[in-house]
């Protein structure tokens, strides 16, 4: 799921309604929390949700709120409850859930239904909210053609209102065909590492040609500008560039083709240049642009083939345990991921590849894979092995 935030511009009447809904949701939330505290044994969300009709009888003003909005409060309560349990599990001292006092309740949610976007063609479109009305909203085009799953209305301390719109992204997979997924980590030592255990060394030509390139560039700088020799040397440099580019593209075409042919869903890291320390500026630029190109090649090939490439959030992929989700700090020199929480011990890049896949799937399906085992490994095609140093099927475990 992807969510977008848009400004809402209610008129006075609408704002009054919005504030009323907020307060009624707060009331229902608190009532459910009271009910929860009375429950014995395992907390039961449905039981709380089923208490709403009774509440409505006693408090008829609740009828003025779209019923699913009230029901959603039971999810909010249980989500808070889970958050609390998580903190507890991590060894934090936690109390109980608190009742929400007036003014502390800032959001309510329309889930699945009760809302509609009405395009006006003007500067503001309209967000229709059942039992509230049509509120002015300023949207950008990003939501076009996407299926909206949920609308959360939020009031900030400043008094401004926003709509958080959650959209679903579907994975185009043929009927009856199970989608094959892969996560890819990109790095300096290993150009790519994927969840099936394939690791590809950084192509040697980068280093080799890079040295040569520097040499002939230095020669160029010593020649007199505009002279015959200068022109000749300039052509040499351009040719060298061309050669590097061709070799690189050739390699990247083969590599991206391999992934698109073999997988339906490919998650890669959104490029994170900060991770590239301890190499020279030029080499860094080179690596950076080659990864960018790899992602581009993957994307357009996938689009043609009706498959999906997703660029996942790169923040801290190497520091997160894919299995239990906890943070496991390590410096660049540490090549093995050893998780003190769940005992997982695998190659550092291998773990990152899993985190990338998990994040990619979370973004698209709104759910991660808590239990995930890699599929069987097809060996990399020989032409890729030939153009670079490759260790096919060499498990980094
Ligand atoms: Zn772990």
Task: Describe the structure in your own words.
- The protein is an alpha+beta fold and 397 residues long.
- It folds into 2 domains: 2-168, no CATH class; 181-391, Nucleotidyltransferase, domain 5 (2-Layer Sandwich).
- It contains 9 helices and 15 strands.
- It has helices at residues 12-38, 45-49, 52-58, 67-89, 204-222, 228-262, 281-305, 348-365, 382-387; strands at 2-9, 107-111, 115-118, 125-129, 133-138, 147-155, 161-168, 181-186, 190-194, 199-201, 265-269, 308-312, 336-338, 345-347, 390-391.
- It has a 7-stranded antiparallel β-sheet with strand order 2-6-7-1-5-4-3, with helices on both faces. The protein has a 6-stranded mixed β-sheet with strand order 12-11-8-9-10-15. The chain has a two-stranded antiparallel sheet with strand order 13-14.
- Helix 1 crosses helix 4 (67-89), helix 5 (204-222) runs antiparallel to helix 6 (228-262) and helix 6 (228-262) crosses helix 7.
- The chain starts with a strand and ends in a 6-residue tail after the last strand.
- The relative contact order is 0.11.
- The structure holds zinc ion.
């Amino acid at each position: 799921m992807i969510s977008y935030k848009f400004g809402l511009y209610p008129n006075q009447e609408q704002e009054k309604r919005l504030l009323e809904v907020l307060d009624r949701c707060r009331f229902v939330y608190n009532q459910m929390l009271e009910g929860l505290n009375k429950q014995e044994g395992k907390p039961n969300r449905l039981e709380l949700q089923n208490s709403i009709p009774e509440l409505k009888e006693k408090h008829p003003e609740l009828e003025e709120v779209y019923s699913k909005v009230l029901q959603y409060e039971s999810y909010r309560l249980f989500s808070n409850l889970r958050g609390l349990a998580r903190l507890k599990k991590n060894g934090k001292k936690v109390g109980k859930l608190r009742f929400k006092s007036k003014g502390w309740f800032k959001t309510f949610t329309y889930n699945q239904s009760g809302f509609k976007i009405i395009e006006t063609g003007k500067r503001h479109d309209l967000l229709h909210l059942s039992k509230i009305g049509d509120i002015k909203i300023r949207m950008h085009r990003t939501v076009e053609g996407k299926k909206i799953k949920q609308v959360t209305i939020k009031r900030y301390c400043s008094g401004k209102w926003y709509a958080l719109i959650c959209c679903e992204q579907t994975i185009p997979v043929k009927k009856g065909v199970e989608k094959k997924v892969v996560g890819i980590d990109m790095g300096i030592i290993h150009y790519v590492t994927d969840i099936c255990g394939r690791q590809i060394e950084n192509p040697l030509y980068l280093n080799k040609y890079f040295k040569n390139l520097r040499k002939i560039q230095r020669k160029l700088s010593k020649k007199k500008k505009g002279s015959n020799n200068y022109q000749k040397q300039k052509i040499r440099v351009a040719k060298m560039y061309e050669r590097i580019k061709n070799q690189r593209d050739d390699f990247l075409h083969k590599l991206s083709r391999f992934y698109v042919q073999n997988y339906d869903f490919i998650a890669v890291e959104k490029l994170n240049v900060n991770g590239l320390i301890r190499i020279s500026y030029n080499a860094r630029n080179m690596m950076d642009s080659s990864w960018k190109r790899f992602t581009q090649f993957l994307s357009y090939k996938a689009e043609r083939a009706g498959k999906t490439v997703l660029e996942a959030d790169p923040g801290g992929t190497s520091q997160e345990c894919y299995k239990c989700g906890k943070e496991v700090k390590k410096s660049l020199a540490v090549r093995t991921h050893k998780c003190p929480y769940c005992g997982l011990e695998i190659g550092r890049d291998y773990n990152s590849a899993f985190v990338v896949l998990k994040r990619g799937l979370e973004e698209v399906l709104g759910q991660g894979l808590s239990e995930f085992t890699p599929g069987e490994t097809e060996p990399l095609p020989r032409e890729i092995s030939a153009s670079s140093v490759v260790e096919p099927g060499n498990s980094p475990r």
